[in-house]
From TrEMBL:
Region described as Disordered: spans on this chain: 51-88
Protein name: DNA polymerase III subunit delta
Signal peptide feature range: none
Alphabetized InterPro entries for the sequence: AAA+_ATPase, DNA_Rep/Repair_Clamp_Loader, P-loop_NTPase
GO biological process: DNA-templated DNA replication
Domain AAA+ ATPase: 23-172
Compositionally biased intervals (Basic and acidic residues): 71-88
Gene Ontology CC annotation, any one: DNA polymerase III complex
Length: 319
């Protein structure tokens, strides 16, 4: 069993279903990015397809089909094939689902069961999701689908209705501190606090934030939210610490960090100051949803985040 914090209940439900007379053919693993859903999916799939008396391979399993974002283009595909870092496409493609469905016309290789993992399933556009729906409605015998979802609400209701949902809870702050002390001992207290604030209970996200070195970004964001930025000085500093060409991962992490800065203020303000916080938080949530697929200019994106944060200070000083 995986050692991830917060997985005990999910394992109990999964194994209870697996030992029953009829295992449900579709499962959604729902929770924040970075709480270990992918690791659970892979381990659960191995348990599902294993049969007594049939040796199981230690590496890739022929009866576990794993779909995720493909390389962005042919150049990136060659990098992947050469074992080099490569840039992924923003969405799982409909062609991947169609190739999967062709594969499902054959029998499993080693035993009677086959597992399909789609990670993350909420990164399918509607035509792709509708193509998958056909297989969920009439699954081949012995085929089980495990859909990893960071944002359950983005899945089609028709897909959700055909699957059982396993929820993966956020990790509490004390456990987050312990995890970071173990996995990222080099992190300063400032960086650790920033990572925990932005991660909202996701160890994987917190560790990624440490690797992205967002401690200074967090400090400047707090200053903007507290003092405002009438002369754009702080927004200029924010752009500077983000870098001239921040990766998409870093851009998305910055939006999440700004959202955490706003959310952390709700309990510490007067009742009259809550509506601007809610409005700014909602704007950041919309920006986070658009950023993975939109071609935002990195510099303008950072300035937009800074402007949203500066509006909080402006709302407090408005007559």
């Amino acid at each position: 069993m995986s050692s991830y914090i917060g997985h005990d209940e999910a394992w109990e439900q999964w194994r209870r279903a697996q030992s029953g007379e009829r295992m449900h053919h579709g499962w959604i693993l729902s929770g924040r990015r970075g709480v270990g859903k992918s690791a659970f999916a892979k381990e659960a799939a191995r348990e599902l397809v294993a049969e007594d008396g049939i040796p199981q391979p230690a590496g890739d399993h022929p009866d576990i089909l794993y779909l995720t974002h493909p390389p962005r283009n042919d150049t990136e595909a060659r990098k992947r094939d050469d074992g080099k870092p490569y840039e992924r496409a923003r969405n799982i493609k409909i062609d991947q689902i169609r190739r999967l469905q062709q594969r499902l016309n054959t029998r499993p290789t080693l035993g009677k069961r086959r597992a399909v993992i789609i990670d993350p399933a909420d990164d399918m556009e509607e035509p792709t999701a509708n193509a998958l729906l056909k297989s969920l409605e009439e699954p081949p015998q012995g085929t089980f689908f495990i859909l990893v979802a960071h944002r359950l609400g983005r899945l089609l209701p028709t897909i959700r209705s055909r699957c059982r949902v396993l929820n993966f809870p956020a990790v509490d702050e004390a456990d987050m501190v312990s995890i970071l002390e173990r996995e990222a001992p080099q992190a300063s207290e400032e960086m650790r606090d920033a990572a925990i604030a932005a991660a909202s209970g996701s160890p994987g996200v917190a560790i990624s934030f440490v690797k992205l070195d967002l401690g200074k970004v967090h400090t400047i964001m707090q200053q903007i939210a507290d003092k405002g930025d009438p002369d754009f000085t702080l927004r200029g500093r924010l752009a500077g610490v983000m870098g001239a060409r921040p990766s998409r991962e870093k851009q998305l992490a910055a939006i999440e960090l700004a959202r955490a800065v706003v959310a952390g203020r709700v309990a510490r303000v007067q009742q009259a100051d809550i509506p601007p916080l809610v409005e700014t938080h909602a704007a950041l949530v919309r920006l986070a949803a658009q950023a993975p697929t939109a071609n935002f200019d990195a510099g303008l994106l950072v300035m937009e985040v800074g402007t949203l944060l500066s509006s909080l200070a402006a709302s407090r000083t408005a007559p």
